[in-house]
Amino acid sequence: MIAIRKPGPLITVLLHAALLLVTLFALFPIYFTFQASLQPGNTLYSTELQLWPANPTGENYAYVLFSLPMVTWLRNSFIVALATTVVTLVIAVSAAYALSRFRFRGRGSLMTIMLALQAFPSLLALFAYYLLLNQVGLTNTLVGLVLVYAAGAIVLNIWNLKGYFDTIPVDLEEAAMIDGCTPTQAFLRVMLPLARPALATTALFGFLAGWNEYIIAQTLLFDEALYTAPVGIFGLQDGFRNPWGWFAAASFIVSVPVVILFLILQRNLVSGLTQGG
Amino acid sequence: MAQTRADLGARPAALPQRRDNQTRLTAAAYLAPALCAIAIVNVFPILYSLYMSLTNRNGPRRFPVGQFELTGFENYARLLSQPTFYIVFLKSVAFALVCVALFFVFGLALALLLEHPAIRGRAIWRTLLILPWAVPTWVTALVWKFMFNGQFGTINHVLRGVGLPAPDWLTVPFTAWVAIVIVNLWMSYPFFMLILIGGLGTIPGDLYEAASLDGAGFWRQLFSITIPLLRPVAVPALILSAIAQFQMFNTVYLMTRGGPFARVGESGSTELLLVWGYNQGFQGSMMYGLTSAFSIVVFLILLAMTLGATRLTNATRGAYE
Predict the structure, then answer these.
(1) How many Cβ contacts (< 8 angstroms) between chains A and B?
(2) Which ipTM score applies to this complex?
(3) Are A117 and A179 in a shared domain?
(4) Residues A6 and A74 in one domain
(5) CB-based contacts of A262: which residues, under 8 Å, 6+ apart?
(6) Residue B129: which of A16, A26, A167 has the nearest Cβ?
(7) CB contact, 8 Å: A98 with chain B?
């Protein structure tokens, strides 16, 4: 809120205190995971509050990285997430461009129908996906997984990108076309660079969706060598006591790349989300 | 700050159109990959579920190839005559409403706090505050599940430390519910905070100046200026989020599996719509026919919500142009 008077020192202190409190709420679970990953053995099962391990150790990291096929799982996750991002981005960008820049019959209904399809809880149609993938021999493959993830992302991405493209004035493309560009050239050279925040946001969420998904991957992959990281990590549960130290170390390893990605792209988030959408 | 959609859209965004086959072909070529993909990965599963929902494929095996036949609307009759279905439905509505209301209040409070002129180091605070969003949902579920553990969990360490009662959060129906709401708030508020910061940036400062001169205090300004002018940004986000919360699955499933369960045959206290459907269809009983009927019913409900929402947001958008 834009205040008129200069706030007094008491207000300033109170506001910062409130902010600090909320930030603690936001960061504590992340900090907790980090310190838990450094706890040796079963010391996490303590009835005392511990905020820093008495004997911090890297053994959880060593175990998770070298005794488990974690590197393979991370590679699988990376392939799936990247493929999902690229496939959905290419398909959605071109469709969103057509919907934003061309006028044709059925354009409005097409947008509505796509949104309507999104209302289907595809999680409950897992066996339909299974059957579909089985027909083309893609069960228990990473390609099949990418196909299912793309299903969840394409429509929303089209909507988001179309909304953003609508906010970019056509004059620039027109100018390019007067200079002799085809619509496609104008699109690639003029529009795409301007839509960078929306592209970055869409790509980020596409990547996160593939990198983070657990339930579907767990249903469609049987082969340990094909597991994505979450499936592999959840497989460590032994039904009795969960190996929390390993979970924490693995969670940290998996989260760090996405958090970094998020921080790099965060400047785009506000404009990418509020202009389009 | 970004323009919002409210400022735009009045200007037609289309290219100069020549109504010839060339244009039409170009548009079709751009749309073709998306339409093919949507037909295969979005439309087919819906039609297949519709077909399944009319069969008695409620077998014990995982994805069986076995025998099943069309039985008409038997699954629908069975589903809609179960009191559990309605309980689960109402529970999900309540969950969505409570969550979305909390997201908005918390997000708005933070947005206002961050935009307050007294705050130093705004960019750093903002970066720290959006971090929960970047954490994978399954990590969120795991970490909070541990923190809510009755015996070893951090939350109870703290509660015992200050002499408050320390319930076994995830095994008591009410506290399990509170726990999933808190976790959901933790992972979802950053989105609202960012959206509302964007929205605050579009409100002209002289409105507040004028209001101050007229003697309007903070709350008056909040309810008469800030919230009404945030509507174009907030309403679509609230509706989309409500629909998403209605479909909440991952975090809740990974934290509680829908439990605690009081009795066999009754729904668990955190067994929201999709958790219940998943438990019915893919855990133990494998009732594909019934689950398909359920997915079609949920589809229709969400469809009505979505279409109603688009109409509503169009209406609000129109009001500000």
Answers:
(1) 309
(2) 0.82
(3) yes
(4) no
(5) A204, B130, B131, B133, B134
(6) A26
(7) yes
